[in-house]
């Protein structure tokens, strides 16, 4: 299967694990991108040539308080550039020029909740299992996207001191999960889900 993740180059842990419903800079989900070329967006009239993960909810940029606001609407929330325009108002390709003002490239007005760096310092990676193993990155059940385990995701997102610490916490929690799943069927089911979410780009 192909593992899709988002992190800073040379980093040994993922800031985000990308699932099929995860959002691209162009505003469309990974599912809506071509599985052959892996990156081209298939949505009618969308010019996006390369899937690039963007946060799709305030928790992913560490803004946990936003959801408590009475007027908060998740489907209206968008990750924004310093120019105040959303990613959808920037060119899907190249330097991501703003289409509403003279802003030359998307510069996130938020920091990554996992490593505290800006969106533009990250890249979306498409890797196979051996590439990930060579780089010491999580594979198999350890790759379960954070978004599929909300409690783990939140723990990872709030462990802001150091990305490594958060990642180690996640790993040990996953180890514990696997160990305590006395019912082997549970483990099988979890493994099955993982492979589903990591193989969707190969068809
Ligand atoms: Zn698109
Ligand atoms: Zn796209
Ligand atoms: Zn901008
Ligand atoms: Zn702008
Ligand atoms: Zn990060």
Automatic annotation (TrEMBL):
<dbReference type="Pfam" id="PF14753">
    <property type="entry name" value="FAM221"/>
</dbReference>
<protein>
    <submittedName>
        <fullName>Uncharacterized protein</fullName>
    </submittedName>
</protein>
<dbReference type="InterPro" id="IPR026755">
    <property type="entry name" value="Fam221a/b"/>
</dbReference>
<comment type="similarity">
    <text>Belongs to the FAM221 family.</text>
</comment>
